[in-house]
Amino acid sequence: MLEGKAVIGEADMLKTMQQDALDLASKALDFFDVTDATEIARFIKKEFDRLYGSGWQCIVGTDFGSFVTHCHGCFIYFCIESLAILLFKGSSAPESEANQLAALEAARA
């Protein structure tokens, strides 16, 4: 496991999904070197696609800016030591998609 503690900067996501994101980031850092941002992002994205349906995007790095549109309830930005991770499901989709995601989360619990 990673020594450093994750610090959430912004989140529009259920607490259970936030914890999944933090756990997956920690797991990715067990598998990949901290400098291998692309592999870390790929790992987290694919796992969120598997857990919560396709369409997730993940950006990992030490210095980046962003401005994204995300589905309601599908956004988290957090840091682990010097590494920043942005995970979101991008969309301008109607609110019904967020309700569908909440139903998936409820079924998973």
From TrEMBL:
Keywords: Cytoplasm, Cytoskeleton, Dynein, Microtubule, Motor protein. One of its GO terms (molecular function) is dynein intermediate chain binding. Pfam families: Dynein_light. InterPro entries: DLC_sf, Dynein_light_chain_typ-1/2. One of its GO terms (biological process) is microtubule-based process. Belongs to the dynein light chain family. This is Dynein light chain. It comes from Quillaja saponaria (Soap bark tree). The lineage of its organism: Eukaryota, Viridiplantae, Streptophyta, Embryophyta, Tracheophyta.
